[in-house]
Amino acid sequence: MPPVKRVLSIDESHHRLMLEGGVGVYDAASGCVDYEVHEKRPVVYWFNRLHYNRIQGWNFMGDFFAVSLVFFAVSGLFMVKGKNGLAGRGKWLLLAGILIPLGYIWLAA
Prior knowledge:
It contains 3 helices and 4 strands. The protein is of the alpha+beta class. The longest helix is centred in the middle third of the chain and has 20 residues, at 58-77. The chain starts with a strand and ends with a helix.
């Protein structure tokens, strides 16, 4: 069994064990420990490091991606002409796209 880092009580006879590289449950009544060991998966670990911005130089890529998303959103407003464009149905879609996130923020506060 891996070394124990921390012990948390679940109830009177069960304790959660935080192990080095895993987690387990100790049953005091039977004296058994049920545990699982977590292993790093190389590709998932690398993507997770990118997600949390732990790789040097990745700030530039994140900023570039954010600017490109803003560009695509703004340019998409003016691509469609006529009754489906911004002057027609598009204004209502734009209004809904603004009000839904604002409503969510207002309700969550």
